[in-house]
């Protein structure tokens, strides 16, 4: 069974929607510092100066490419830890988007593990290994896609994503292979949070 939704899978929210627990993860000091600045004053956001694999969360976020290949950066680690997840992502991208998930969209798929049970793939680049320009807005677009999917998306069985996924671990979006400056990434994630949750 294929579990997937896109960031545009809208549904009624019936009033105020609480925010998820978003854990911003950093394995290096510059990103951890940038995350701390953006998390300050935003309830629901916390910072973990370590790997996404250290945490007990419902979902991890994959700063993927549009084709769903998971061969570099943290995606390669996800593919190693969750052997079926790349095929799940590729199948979802093919089924929902004809083989290419645009930057600004996201899908959620099972990891095949008890925890985290889900992986949210949100491309930060179109092609694998793409170096992003200094003025990129791709971290913002990827973060917004993840947060909109959490707020408005539906699983295949009709369950709102936010009921299954209450906590998420987010690594840097484009800060590894993509070369995005940590401060740029953090500011854009903060802007996406504020837009989606009215901060």
From TrEMBL:
<protein>
    <submittedName>
        <fullName>O-acetyl-ADP-ribose deacetylase (Regulator of RNase III), contains Macro domain</fullName>
    </submittedName>
</protein>
<dbReference type="Pfam" id="PF01661">
    <property type="entry name" value="Macro"/>
</dbReference>
<dbReference type="InterPro" id="IPR043472">
    <property type="entry name" value="Macro_dom-like"/>
</dbReference>
<dbReference type="InterPro" id="IPR002589">
    <property type="entry name" value="Macro_dom"/>
</dbReference>
<feature type="domain" description="Macro">
    <location>
        <begin position="32"/>
        <end position="199"/>
    </location>
</feature>
